[in-house]
Specification:
Length: about 475
């Protein structure tokens, strides 16, 4: 079986978030299970010179963008046993950031068309083209309308994965002819609520639509979560499914991680306490082993639940003996709030604005608990990363958080959770976790359970392969 995995970012080349993690990890997991997987992505300016030196130029072609033809250079590289094709066009991809440009619609329409145009030149005829988020949502549209009947393109199935339904690629009708070059009779595939919606087109045309957790697949058929696409998804529910993401258990490995203070494992867990002491010292908090230390690594925005944190944290800091370390950046409202908390409770909370990957790992390894009270979370990876380091996740039951964390109130779970989106339930969950921390024997069992949890891509890859086989017969 051959899978061409189309994505707008992928490690080790470049990543702006969890999408890049998936693009680097899932193809490797598929390749290890004897699926011939190749990744295709843009060749961005910010890819490091060292990685560029590993690339081999294959050829160049022209790609139709409606009425014009654009240059596309095809480069090849290998990483983790997987072949990557990186598509070059300096006009579109020699930019200072991956997204957020005035012509993103044209940039990723070009990329989506190029994914199909390169097939005759890469010696790889896929059985499946697996597309990800709105940036590649046009691949199934272009395939079904322009390529399916062409020689060399027969019997290709398309899969479209929604990583975050909030970002859909919504633009004006003028794109239809000037950028996309689609026949008038095919406009309905993309038209939705008075606009052109790339994601809607992907949902309509793909043979299978997946999300990054089973719960999120159900949630996005509800208007509260869907950002307007719930009716389309309910109509297409027969081809919708959720598969929970995993994490790279080599990159996130407490036994060999060079970014944490002290290495440890489930078998030799003494280093966990040493990481806590070092983290307290780094964040200039009193070094106390018996005080529960909460970690937060996140964008500081309401969507991540920080309106609830803002409502309940003053009471928690006033009435309990706890510590918090916070790493992130976001809305000024929440940045100022945490600064105020640091000023009022300097022995209980410490803040670092920004995002530093090695510091995030130090928090995963050193904290006792990891707080993620998200309003919605398609999958979430941080809760799995924290758990990989024996840090207990505290989450709201939504999306992948619900699917990956079970409440330990019955003595069998691997974290703590709450359901309703309100500050009272969040506070109650934190108090339960603090009470649980006081039971040293029970807490040690919980940490051991976290360290031994299955967080890898093995289960996810197996489910994807089953889906691919069903599609290809």
């Amino acid at each position: 079986m051959k899978v061409l995995y189309a994505i707008s970012e992928a490690l080790p080349f470049i990543a702006s978030g969890g999408l890049g993690d998936v693009g680097g990890s899932l193809p490797q997991a598929l390749q290890k299970r004897r699926v011939g997987c190749r990744v295709v992505m843009p060749l961005y300016k910010d890819i490091s010179p060292a990685l560029r030196d590993t690339m081999k130029f294959i050829t160049h072609i022209t790609v139709p963008v409606a009425w014009r033809n654009q240059y596309c250079g095809i480069y090849q590289a290998k990483s983790g046993g997987v072949t990557y094709f990186l598509l070059d066009n300096e006009y579109y991809f020699k930019r200072d950031s991956l997204y957020g440009h005035y012509d993103d619609a044209e940039r990723f329409a070009f990329f989506s068309r190029a994914v199909l145009e390169i097939i005759p030149y890469i010696n790889f005829k896929p059985d499946i083209i697996h597309c990800n988020d709105w940036q590649t949502a046009l691949v199934p549209v272009f395939y079904s309308t322009l390529y399916a009947g062409l020689e060399g393109y027969e019997n290709i199935k398309t899969v479209f994965t929604i990583h975050n339904i909030q970002y859909q690629g919504v633009y004006g009708h003028e794109l239809l002819h000037d950028i996309l070059g689609l026949p008038v009779e095919k406009a309905s595939l993309l038209e939705y609520k008075g606009a052109i919606n790339f994601m809607k087109g992907g949902i309509e045309c793909a043979d299978k639509v997946t999300t990054v957790s089973p719960t999120y697949a159900n949630e996005i058929m509800d208007p509260w979560y869907s950002h307007g696409l719930d009716s389309i998804l309910r109509e297409r529910a027969f081809k919708l499914m959720g598969i929970l993401n995993g994490i790279d258990t080599v990159l996130y490995d407490p036994a060999g991680d060079k970014d944490i203070f002290h290495n440890f494992s489930a078998e030799k867990s003494a280093g966990k306490a040493k990481n806590k002491a070092a983290l307290q010292k780094l964040f200039e908090l009193p070094v106390k082993a018996d005080i529960p230390l909460f970690g937060i690594v996140s964008r500081l925005v309401a969507h991540k639940g920080f309106d609830l944190v803002k409502a309940m944290l003053p009471e928690l800091l006033t009435t309990t003996d706890v510590q918090f370390v916070v790493l992130g950046t976001g809305d000024s409202e929440f940045e100022h709030f945490f600064k105020e908390m640091v000023f009022k409770y300097p022995d209980k909370i410490s803040l670092r604005l920004g995002f530093v990957p090695d510091l995030a790992k130090k928090i995963y390894a050193g904290a006792d608990m990891f707080l993620m009270p998200s309003k919605s979370e398609p999958c979430g990876l941080a809760q799995m990363m924290a758990r990989r380091y024996g840090t207990i996740p505290l989450v709201r039951e939504t999306g992948g958080l619900k699917d990956s964390v079970t409440d330990s109130g019955d003595g069998l779970g691997n974290g703590f959770s709450f359901k309703g989106y309100n500050a009272g339930e969040l506070l109650n969950m934190c108090l339960r976790a603090i009470e649980g921390y006081g039971n040293k024997k029970g807490w040690a069992t919980l940490v051991s359970r976290a360290l031994n949890c299955e967080n890898s891509w093995a289960v996810s890859a197996t489910q994807y392969i089953k889906m691919y086989k069903e599609l290809t017969g």
